[in-house]
Amino acid sequence: MRQTLTTVLPSAEPRPAAAGKTLRIKSLREAGLLLIIAALCVAMSFASPYFLTWDNVRAMLLSFAIEGIVVVGMTVLLIVGGIDLSVGSVVCLAMVITGKLFLLGWDPWSASLAAIAASAVVSALIGGCVTKIGLSHFIASLAFMVIVRGLCLAFTQGTPQSLFSLPAEFKFIGQGSVFGMPVVIVIFVFIVAASDFVLRRSVLMRKVFYTGSNEKAALYSGIRVDRVKFWVTVLCSALAGVAGVVYTARFGAATPTFGVGMELNVIAAAVIGGASLKGGSGTVFGAVLGLALLSVVTSSLILLDVSVYWQDVIKGLILLVAVTIDHWLNVRKAIR
Q1: Where are the domains of the chain?
Q2: What backbone torsions phi and psi does residue 176 show, to the nearest 5 degrees?
Q3: How does residue 28 score in pLDDT terms, banded at 50, 70 and 90?
């Protein structure tokens, strides 16, 4: 038995050369995305005089800043080999619970904490279905996407909640500015910077990569695979809950249909940024660049007066290219 374990253990950790090569590939992909975004910005500066105005840049930053909080959790979950289709519904649930409790007399801060806790409970149930029952993340999260959306409609009777009486200090989270910079963007930058640093440098986070790369080898090396998958799932929905609270503060309302399709945009951004659908690969910074690319493309299409229907087609094609590249890289890795 000892001999068997000895032969398995080395495969759980990447060799130095392989690890260096993986980091180089990630850096090249991120650099490539930066170049593409820069090229699009230069091209659009000639195509439309409004593209590089502060108002448009600010609108682009706000459009993906809150969604970027959700992207962080989704990226880590993809790295561990999972996926969560319920994040859009969970964002909506956090908004609805915050609004409902506030209208019942709760202070908005306590209501927000309760909403984030409820979001974590949803993911804990998903994680339980995956680790205890043996369902895949895809099936479990698909079921909860429908369940949670139904709860949002049931709690509100399908009617949007107006929260115009929210206190100014709470609205400041979504509408205020610090030295001219929207607070939403400050929160987003802090979460992204902290998450990217921890994911790249933390010894604890290596377990996430090992589990996603080779679950069986990770298990043999002493990593509690189910526990890792469970807590990463909880993290994903908890961050979706945080995003829902920030959305509530920004819009001063809770709409039971909010967030429909958000999960596809978030997954697309993570995959474009280098997160593998098969697990074991990805960076937070890369996923944010993927989301930034989608935001620039959307803004460009709007300014060029392209039909909203064609916008979805173009973004779908971008996702298809990203998934194809991911598949090609996985095939080459398997051959080597």
Answers
A1: 65-259
A2: -80, 175
A3: confident
